[in-house]
Amino acid sequence: MKDFLPRLKDHLLSRLLGLEYDSNEREFTSSERSTVILAGDKIFRHKVLRINYTTYDLRHDQDSLNPRTNADIMLLAHEDDSDSDGYPYWYARIIGIFHTLVIHTGEHSRSQEPWRMDFLWVRWFGRDPGTPRHPYIAGWKSKRLEQVGFIPGDSPGAFGFLDLQQVVRGVHLIPTFAHGRTEALLPPSIARSTGDNDEDWNFYYVNR
Amino acid sequence: MSEMSPYGKKGKGKEDAEKGSKVTQQHDALALHFEDSEPLPYSDPQSHYHISSSTRYHINIYNWIGKHSGDPALIVSFLITS
After folding, report:
1. Residue A80 CB: number of other CB atoms within 10 A?
2. What gap in Å lies between CA A113 and CA A38, rounded to an integer?
3. Which 8-state DSSP code applies to residue A48?
4. What SS3 state is found at B31?
5. With bands split at pLDDT 50, 70 and 90, how would you rate the model's confidence at A82?
6. What value does the mean pLDDT of chain A take?
7. CB-neighbour burial class of residue B51 (10 A; exposed 0-12, middle 13-18, buried 19+)
């Protein structure tokens, strides 16, 4: 992710302006970004996030998520129709849970008061397409689980910020042990837990 | 779940006050550690999510970005000053 702060401000600003969340993360100009002020230049870290959700059999359930031991989440896909194959979910790993107090100035401002905004910093998974000769096919018919892997750290979509309202619930991702681990997706980084030994699993099965 | 008990809130906070400040300085990783105390009371089932409103583990964003300017997860090509 290039430029943590401008990207964070882009995220906060699109929420303040009520723009719909989709796959095209909106980039604002630096003068537009300057209308978003983080009070005291501070962001606040949190240990745990609870999500209330409705189970498949229409019951209420609650997931307790944290970046340290239970960090994988799913949300609804917001793909443009053109580049979508109709797959309904996106997957991500929580790096950090935060809130901040935002002061929104400028012509679109609705209040001069500091406004609490919660957000997640996440590392995105992409679905494994397989190879052109052997596309990865998952589902009931093929009796295989969906497979995902981290988006390479140098691509623009590797990291992002999320409104917590977008999180559907936690998801259980199982390392695909057969494909092993790799250092190639991301150099040593604070985005990983210390126990990960600067490596990632190449792929994970989605146990949805 | 016991660590999130609303009843333990007061006592625990005090007890961990010294340890807490040390932990934040020591670890650069973003995740709070097991021993960092942040009790979260009962969640309202009507709201989709719940996180603490504690301001204990705060980060000055400019210092933090400066400190991690080489990190591939937040490569900073230039520092914007407010």
Report:
1. 9
2. 12
3. -
4. coil
5. low
6. 90
7. buried
Contact at CB, B73 and A186, closer than 8 angstroms = yes
Question: Measured between CB atoms, does B31 come within 8 Å of chain A?
Answer: yes
Most A CBs within 10 A among B51, B69, B71, hence the mutation to make, goes to B51
For residue A164, which residues of chain B lie inside 8 Å, CB to CB?
A: 48-49, 51
Q: In whole angstroms, what is the distance from residue A53 CA to residue B28 CA?
A: 32
For the stretch A133-175, pLDDT in tens is 888 888 889 899 999 999 998 888 899 999 999 999 999 999 9
Among chain A residues, CA nearest to B77: A3
Rounded Cα gap, residues A90 and A124, in angstroms: 8
- A10-51 residue pLDDT tens: 999 999 998 888 766 788 999 999 999 999 999 999 999 999
Q: What is the ipTM of this complex?
A: 0.83
Task: Name which of A154, A158, A194 is nearest B29 (Cβ-Cβ).
Answer: A194
Burial call A136-162: b when 16+ CB within 10 Å, e when fewer: eebeeeeeebbbbbbbebeeeebbbbb
